[in-house]
Design goal:
- The longest helix has 20 residues, at 88-107.
- This protein folds into two domains: 2-176, HUPs (Rossmann fold); 181-291 and 331-354, Alpha-Beta Complex (Argininosuccinate synthetase, chain A, domain 2), CATH 3.90.1260.
- It has helices at residues 11-23, 42-51, 63-77, 88-107, 122-133, 151-160, 236-249, 274-290, 293-311, 318-330, 361-364, 376-384, 386-393, and strands spanning 2-6, 28-35, 56-61, 111-113, 139-140, 174-177, 182-185, 215-222, 225-229, 232-233, 254-260, 266-272, 336-343, 346-354.
- It is α/β, with parallel strands linked by helices and 411 residues long.
Length: 411
């Protein structure tokens, strides 16, 4: 039996290799490590998988695919989950799952496995992706089978089997990192009455520790897709890496929130999305001058639906494809560049320039007529208020009860 395992080298997947070999005698484990910009030494991770008992180990460079096919469409739409979460983990899971499926086919795997827990969203994301990509492939989810019930027990299992892991009882945080973000969960964060502990952040500094100096950036977009930073055209991965460093150094992009998981559990997470936070702010400013209000409202509705689809693991669906197609049409005019100031966790828009801007200074000016005759508003208002006056005359609305003021008395 050959099992293709989505392998990160973290606590869960590290102990899965010996566990699979114990519970399925004769099984060959093929570790599949996806590089989505998490910053690990992946050759070291590959060596660790082999040392833990994997028959083979693959490292897939999926960074470009991750940014262009997953991050940019979500950014273009402005997708957010529950108003704050920029979907860092949810965006990465489909590209990882697709890489896993591709290797599973290549090596002739009989099953695939993942390290997602039975309480989280990732089990849904991985298995929904497998259902769409390899509908007849069995999926092994150890957290739903083994007797290990906590990360403390998982660390004990790792120690007993000689598997080195980064987590310790003093710092038991569960982290997920990629080019877009890093998430922190578990440990002391499970007490929502307590602030995040010092030293938690990895991609950024706290606003308090950020320098007392403004960092200015200029982001260019082509039809809603980032194309240049500070006047320099950069490949997608390089652009995001550079912006992460700038924004993270200014303390931008950290969110501490309690969210509703798909499985019904409320969970607290601290998310660092420095570059993404800047891009979302910049693109919203660009939308404000290039899209009319109905297009922006439609885009917001689509973004809400898209965010939930991603969060719920329904990436490989016609609905997701249709929303992305609509987003490309709506964002076609969003070409231009935005200047921003980053300072101690804050993002301020300094200026927006767009070749297809709907903002016309001549029309908007208070100092000149600009092609708008004030008298023209009279007929417009007569028509606009006609339904209100008609309803009032028909007795459909109650007249305002305005008290008559008493006459003033002069003593």
């Amino acid at each position: 039996m050959r099992i293709a395992l989505a392998y990160s080298g973290g606590l869960d997947t590290s102990i899965i290799i010996p566990w699979l070999m114990e519970t399925r005698p004769g099984a060959e484990v093929v570790a599949v490590c996806a590089d989505v910009g998490q910053g690990d030494d992946l050759e070291q991770v590959r060596a660790k998988a082999l040392a833990s008992g994997a028959k083979e180990a693959y490292v897939l460079d999926l960074r470009e695919r991750f940014v262009t096919r997953h991050i940019w469409p979500a950014l273009q739409l402005g997708a957010v989950y529950q108003g704050r979460y920029l979907l860092g983990t949810a965006l990465a899971r489909p590209v990882i799952a697709q890489g896993l499926a591709e290797v599973a086919v290549r090596v002739g795997a009989d099953a695939v496995a993942h390290g997602a827990t039975g309480k989280g969203n990732d089990q849904v994301r991985f298995e929904a992706a497998m259902a769409a990509l390899l509908p007849d492939m069995p999926v092994i989810a150890p957290w739903r089978e083994w007797t290990i019930t906590s990360r403390t027990e998982a660390m004990a299992y790792a120690a007993a089997h000689g598997v080195p892991v980064d987590q310790t009882p003093k710092e038991p945080f569960s982290r997920d990192a990629n080019l877009w973000h890093i998430s922190h969960e578990g440990g002391s964060l499970e007490d929502v009455a307590q602030p995040p502990p010092p030293g938690l952040l990895r991609m950024s500094v706290s606003p308090q520790a950020a320098p007392d100096a403004v960092t200015e950036v200029d982001v260019a977009f082509q039809e809603g897709v980032p194309s240049a930073l500070d006047g320099m055209r950069l490949a997608p991965v390089a652009l995001l890496e550079r912006l992460n460093a700038l924004a993270g150094g200014a303390g931008v992009g950290t969110v501490d929130m309690v969210e509703d998981r798909l499985v019904g559990v409320k969970s607290r997470g601290v998310y660092e999305t420095p570059g993404g936070t800047v891009l979302y702010a910049a693109l919203e400013a660009l939308r404000s001058v290039t899209l009319d209000r109905r297009a922006r409202r439609l885009l917001r509705d689509l973004a809400d639906t898209y965010g939930e689809l991603l969060y719920d693991g329904l990436y490989f669906t016609p609905s997701r494809e249709a929303i992305e197609a609509a987003g490309r049409v709506l964002m076609a005019p969003a070409t231009g560049h935005v200047r921003l100031a980053l300072y101690k966790g804050n993002v301020q828009i300094l200026g927006v320039e767009a070749s297809k801007s709907l903002y016309d200074t001549h029309i908007a000016s208070f100092d000149e007529t600009g092609g708008v005759e004030h008298a023209d508003a009279t007929g417009f208002l007569r028509l606009y208020t006609l339904p209100l006056r008609t309803a009032a005359r028909a007795g459909r609305t109650a007249p305002a009860a305005v008290p008559t003021p008493e006459p003033s008395r002069v003593g």
